[in-house]
Amino acid sequence: QVQLVESGGGLVQAGGSLRLSCAASGRTFSVNAMGWFRQAPGKEREFVAAISWSGRSTSYYADSAKGRFATSRDSARNSVYLYLQMNSLEPEDTAVYYCAAAATRGVGLEYFARSDVYPYWGQGTQVSVSS
Fold first, then answer.
1. What is residue 106's predicted lDDT score, i.e. its pLDDT?
2. Which of 36, 52, 107, 127 could bond 111 through an S-S bridge, CB–CB 3.0 to 4.6 Å?
């Protein structure tokens, strides 16, 4: 099992920035990729970004996130963290943001744009952007 806990959400004005964090614990050695998703009220959960967890760090973004958001990872001795730096935020970015982890190997990073491939999810953190 992998446990995920997001933090860093909040209320920000349009054009502002936020940095979300996701702390991973448990069987993190089994993780091969992690992702960020978001869900706005009345809408389906949508992909934001994914990052490989083993070897060289590569990332993949939704079109809505390209150029504004950046995901990164940090694996210290006993701590594993995933980050999402969000810049130039827009009211349309308002949503609950979730981090997720998957162990699937042998696939391209685009595979992890699907929410159904992730068995592990955090509880989510609210991001609200005012106009």
1. 86
2. 107
Instruction: Return the structure tokens found at 96.
Output: 């609950």
Q: How far apart are CA 122 and CA 120, in angstroms?
A: 7
Q: How far apart are CA 53 and CA 82, in angstroms?
A: 10
Beta pairing partners, 99: 36
Starting at the earlier edge strand, list the strands of the sheet with 18-26: 2-7, 18-26, 80-86, 69-75
Give the model's pLDDT for residue 38.
98
Structural tokens at position 27: 């069987």
pLDDT at 56 (0 to 100):
78
Ranges in the chain, pLDDT < 50: none
Going by C-alpha positions, the residue among 86, 83, 105 that lies closest to residue 4 is 83
Q: How far apart are CA 64 and CA 87, in angstroms?
A: 12
CB atoms under 10 Å from CB of 50, counted, come to 27
What is the identity of the amino acid at 40?
Answer: A
